[in-house]
Amino acid sequence: MEKQKAPVIPKGAVYLFILVTSLFALWGFANDITNPMVAAFKNILLITNFESSLVQFAFYGGYCFMAIPAAIFIQKFNYKKGILMGLALYSTGCFLFIPAGNAMAFWAFLIAYFVMTCGLAFLETTSNPYILSMGPEETATRRLNLAQAFNPIGSLTGMLIAKEFILERLKPATEAERAVLQNTDPAAFEAIQQADLNTVSGPYIMLGCVVSAFFVLFLLSKLPLGKSSDDQHSSIGATFKRLLGNGIYARGVIAQAFYVGVQIMVWTFIIQYAGNELGMAKATAQVYNMVAMAVFVSSRFICTFLLKYFKPSVLLMCLAIGGGFFTLGTIFIRGITGLYCLVAISACMSLMFPTIYGIALKGLGDDAKLGSAGLILAIGGGSLMPPLQGLLIDKANWFASLSSTRVSFVLPLICFIVIALYGRWVQVKKP
């Protein structure tokens, strides 16, 4: 008798899957309404690429700071309380944009981003292993890829809001014009700054209201606690020791850090690439960011289907190699074709986060709760690499034939090499 295939989502878990998957879109929205703000703050506040990219340092730094505490919290309590804590911090960070806008202080916006992503760290540390635990282990990676497929839908919405309700509504004055106005008429310059910062703050305040509504929804919903009976006997120190001794997990954390780094660099600096290389306006360049996200969404569903026929590590390695080739095109091909290569990178990135996550946590059992923290901590790669790329862009041209903007994409190239090596290493260890 033929063995029945294990379901990706068991019938009894459908509602729970839908409810938790909604969070994937919610943090995708936060990620991608924020990426264009690097360019926006640079123009509004007349700061360098490095300084403006501190938005990403603060945003993804929250993941580094809160990932381990979030995992310990979930270990002590349960998944539902972890989700509620995440939503509470997320909405608080959004509402901090009100005093930040009133103060007109860049550091205040950085604090708001940091608090927001402390909440996102709770949500991601909770939701990813929760999805993995909702059905058979043999379909866990496919289940997580399916849930993650809804993340870019939130991302695409965030990009659209950023374009239509922020970038399009900022005052049209260029950085050069603002610099002149700052010296000749400081009061007028300050008025423009205040108007622009209010424009930036508005969507985040509305987001805070939406997140608060989700908090109420989860508070009133009955969710399985997701806490094992032996949690009280488990040692956090012993768990971390087991995790560090697991080569596939430990290398997975490193690969995830490089993946998040490449994702944030590619999506953050599409606007700078289009502006510096092709002279595009920021709002127009954001359209290419949205196209990249549409490519990402489409590729995610296609790759989730392909996982039925290919090992996750094989597909991961092949896509990392493809991403590397498109990155080389971004660096060495001038004009619109180089921009097309940059957009095409998103097709190769679509599978990576959930696949690395699923490979690294497979077979960890209850250790996955703390193991998830290491993989969320790896999102900190997004806090370190964009400022490094910003520094490279700020430098004078390195070569006569290559602009500093194009040279800066050597960092994403390195990231893809690391990811490809991880995929290959997993194949060797698990043939």
Explain the overall architecture:
The protein has 431 residues and is an all-alpha fold. The chain has a single domain, classed as MFS general substrate transporter like domains (Growth Hormone, Chain: A, Up-down Bundle), CATH 1.20.1250.20. It contains 22 helices and no strands. α2 (37-45) runs antiparallel to α11 (186-220), α8 runs antiparallel to α15 and α10 (175-184) packs across α11. The radius of gyration is 21 Å and the shape is globular. It starts with 13 loop residues before the first helix and ends with a helix. Mean pLDDT is 86; it is low at 227-233.
Show the helix and strand layout:
Elements: H1 14-34, H2 37-45, H3 49-52, H4 54-76, H5 79-95, H6 97-103, H7 106-132, H8 140-148, H9 151-165, H10 175-184, H11 186-220, H12 236-244, H13 247-268, H14 270-278, H15 282-306, H16 312-332, H17 335-349, H18 352-361, H19 368-377, H20 381-394, H21 404-407, H22 410-429
Helix pairs in contact: 1-7, 1-9, 2-11, 4-7, 4-19, 4-20, 5-7, 5-11, 6-7, 6-11, 7-19, 8-15, 8-18, 9-15, 10-11, 13-18, 13-19, 13-20, 13-22, 14-15, 14-17, 15-17, 16-17, 16-18, 16-22
